[in-house]
Amino acid sequence: MKRLLALVALAGTMATAACDGLGQAMTSHTNVVARAGGLELTVDEAAGLIAQNPRLPNELEVVEAVANLWVDYVLLATLANRDSTLAELDVGLVVDPFLEQQLLARLSEKVITADTALTDEQLREIYEAEQPGLQIRARHVLVRLDADATPAQRDSALAIARDVRTRALAGEDFARLAEEYSQDPGSARQGGDLGFFRRGQMVAPFDEAAFALDVGEISDIVETPFGYHVIKVEERQLPEFEDVKDIFRLQTQQRRIAEAQERFMTELTGGLDIQVQEGAAQVARELAAKPEMQLSRRAASRALVTYRGGQLTAAEYLSFVRSRTSPSDRARLASFGDEDLSTILEGVARNEILLAAAKDHGLEVTTEERDSLANEVRTQLTDALRILGFLDITPQEGETQAQAVERRVVGFLEAIIREEREPLGLGPISFALRGPQDAEIFARTFPKVVEAVHAARPAEASLPAAPATPQSDTAAEP
Q1: Cα–Cα distance for residue pair 392/45, rounded to 1 Å
Q2: CA–centroid distance for 247 within its chain
Q3: What phi and psi values does residue 439 have, to the nearest 5 degrees?
Q4: Closest C-alpha among 16, 63, 22 to residue 413
Q5: How many CA atoms does the CB half-sphere of 39 hold within 13 Å?
Q6: Residue 168, SS3?
Q7: What is the pTM of this model?
Q8: Over the stretch 282-341, which tens digit does the pLDDT of each residue have?
Q9: Which of 22, 179, 259, 403 has minimal Cβ neighbours within 10 Å of its Cβ?
Q10: How far, in Å, CA of 65 to CA of 67, rounded?
Q11: In angstroms, what CA-CA distances link 325 with 76, 295, 335?
């Protein structure tokens, strides 16, 4: 079942080629699902593949996944049999992110200074001041208050909370008060006991108030989205310094380096007047939704972000989307609002500014470094293709080379669908394989494939719908 789900997930990993072209495609390819390398995947062929496993959901997303895998494997096998070294394959989308990270690391080493030399005494002082890993055990009384409560209801709830606090301060047993007055069903029966918790596990106002208390202290009235709380801390536990000294030293050093990097970035960009252009968020949203999009020269050069001395173009942002985001990342980007996308665009622009700063400081990736990493990527991909039997494909009698490639690809897809083999996910390589003339996928034929699969399968063999995944609240309630 995990393999089936992985196959469905791969629908988003492939770079869907231009869909539903006009003219001839509208007339002569009404039963073609995909085309690549001079070959065509027909509706009947796609349906025949999917129907081989009755557990595979008969859905449009599965048809898309199969079509994309077929296209990529055909293109890759064709290329590999033309040149087993894959020298023609542009692996820049895989290589560039790694090389850029190396370049930025060198820039950090050269221009960013942080005081990371700490004696044990200095480290202990920081530890005692910050108290990382601190846990407290607390009790509370909650008087619930609805968001739409009337002033009278608020006054009544506040009066109850104040009375509880007054009685607790006077020495009454806090656990008994919680059992009697708390409206938190999860802790009232335990005398309001919440057990041990760390910073950030409770909603912010509760968290701040609780961690400000010493053992035995009782808080003022604390208001949260759940109502009014009275809190009493029972225990505080902090790991011994000697037990966590080494890991805390590393964390402190890393934090100081991060702070120094942030200061450098602020100084570098402070006067550059970074501006996200009008309409840029919509363009970013569209490119995340359709990363396979082929941009015209004019569209590619459109400035999404401008800053003094440079700009972030649509082409540069598209390269970021293709090389540095997963299918789930792209889905989130496509759903983000303008404000979130503007923040992301600024971040991508700042990365470009950092790369320019590295160049200004005389830092660069050498041709040898780039070639070495590119060759490593090609070698690993070639090894995978050899294992899959995609190299040295020999036509059988009466076959063309293209037909021999198709036979091998279809055989591999059949093994994937029957859950005998794992799919070979290509990630950014998929985008590099495809150009506007290399492949096409015709989404309008997907429903025909679903219909054909339905007709080929017994009704009782269909996969039952998976139950909805329970969702947990993101804000912890005490």
Answers
A1: 25
A2: 27
A3: -160, 155
A4: 63
A5: 25
A6: helix
A7: 0.70
A8: 999 999 999 988 899 999 999 999 999 999 999 999 999 999 998 889 999 999 999 999
A9: 22
A10: 5
A11: 22, 19, 14
